[in-house]
Specification:
heterodimer; A: about 160 residues; alpha+beta; Ubiquitin-like (UB roll); DNA polymerase, domain 1; 2 domains; 5-stranded mixed sheet; globular; B: alpha+beta; Uridine Diphospho-n-acetylenolpyruvylglucosamine Reductase, domain 2; Enolase-like, domain 1; 3 domains; 5-stranded antiparallel sheet; 4-stranded antiparallel sheet; about 30% helix; binds flavin-adenine dinucleotide; binds FE2/S2 (inorganic) cluster
Chain lengths: ~160, ~290
Amino acid sequence: MSNRIIINTVINGEPTEFLADERDSLLEALRERIGLTGVKEGCNNGNCGACAVIMDGRLVNSCLVLAAETEGANITTVEGLAKGGELTPLQQTFLEDAALQCGICTPGFLVAATALLEQNPHPSEHEIRYWLAGNLCRCTGYDKIIRAVQHAAERSA
Amino acid sequence: MQDVTYRRPATLQEAVQLLKDNGPTARVLAGGTDIIVMARERRRDTSMFVDIKAIPELTGIRFDASEGLTLGAATPLYQIYRNETIQRLYPCLVDSASLIGGTAVQGRASFGGNLCNAGPAADSIPSLIVLEGKARIVGPNGERTVAVEDFCTAPGRNVLEAGEILVSLSFPAPQPNSGARFLRFIPRNEMDIAVVNAATSLRFEGNNVVAARIAIGAVAPRPLFVPAAGAALVGKPLTDESIAAAASASRDAATPIDDMRGSVRQRKHLSYVLTERTIRDAAHRARGEALEH
Ligand SMILES: Cc1cc2nc3c(=O)[nH]c(=O)nc-3n(C[C@H](O)[C@H](O)[C@H](O)COP(=O)(O)OP(=O)(O)OC[C@H]3O[C@@H](n4cnc5c(N)ncnc54)[C@H](O)[C@@H]3O)c2cc1C
Ligand code: FES
Ligand code: FES
């Protein structure tokens, strides 16, 4: 039996206390213990970005973080982007520009691109591609995703 | 993942004690981008993670114009490449830090983890070597310092003894008219393991090169410091001939293997090409010129 521990965090603005195994990844804790299933598991080894979340202001892959490491941390998942049912400009342009097909990569792209726009509101195409290089998509061919991020940046002029 | 215990010691002494008391399956956890995957895939038998990120000496960036630069071994890469002092005085470290993984990996991964993991293709190690990095190590028997080029011993192996922790990496203050550059070759633009990588540091007095250090990676069981390549440049102006001699020395020192990423012939050739390019770029930086690419 792995040890159970209580972890106190702030998730999507809400103080959240949860019970986890010491071996749990943050990805497992978010999905299985807290029920935030917007966070996706693609590869479980850091290569695909489907599990990306923002932790204390920086983008991380939640499959490469232990839940135990998040004591006191502030975490944003895809569920925390829209406020009061209102989509963010980025979520809106993802829909308008058809930047998703099957959608499994979408939460990771949304979270990663949100982190980009927070610190660089008007990135170049090169900067967007470079920043999102750790997010894989098997369906869209990327161009539509890049365009959606560009359009969202234009909107927040 | 197998059952593990998680500990987050607040001091170096506590961390050393935990490692000592719990034996080889107690693993240091820095950014976790190597060790969490290896533990999950059972490539490393792991009973305990000793998270070193709450220990003050292990994180942060300190610079002093006479002492030089000291990086806490667990400092995440994004803090390194966003640091203005490092951008200005140690751009070769930015070259490496901004190429390891993607943004989400850089939010966690550290130079200390990259060095301790001791991968032959590790993208920080050639830069750490040519910048004369010194590894400060603390363990049950006290403290010692090891030059980075002597740190790795074989694939996945390093000089750390039971209970020892890499605390920090230190670099001398940059000399006037010096410059350094790291490059890697991969089939795509980002997110891949090096086929070959290389770094060069140079210092000029007048027209003459007075110091040169060259290191190459992914061409031997450990990242390779190639003193003969540097020696081919020293004591004369930089010319096409001296650069060719240095690049040939790198190619001769390389003892690569064939694998899915590249053949022996290609890796030998790339050792030559990347050595040449890093020398030219390091010279540009030494003269305060912008790089073309
Ligand atoms: C998607 C992905 C892409 C990657 N791309 C690259 C790449 O392009 N280039 C590259 O070189 N690497 C790459 N890596 C590998 C990895 O990210 C790097 O090696 C990273 O620098 C490791 O640092 P870390 O802090 O995460 O180490 P950890 O995983 O925390 O530790 C690595 C090893 O070192 C030990 N250790 C760590 N710190 C210390 C210390 N201070 N004292 C003693 N022992 C210690 C640990 O016990 C473990 O054995 C990639 C990894 C992933 C998942
Ligand atoms: S599931 Fe975490 S990066 Fe793929
Ligand atoms: S939309 Fe299917 S993987 Fe991206």
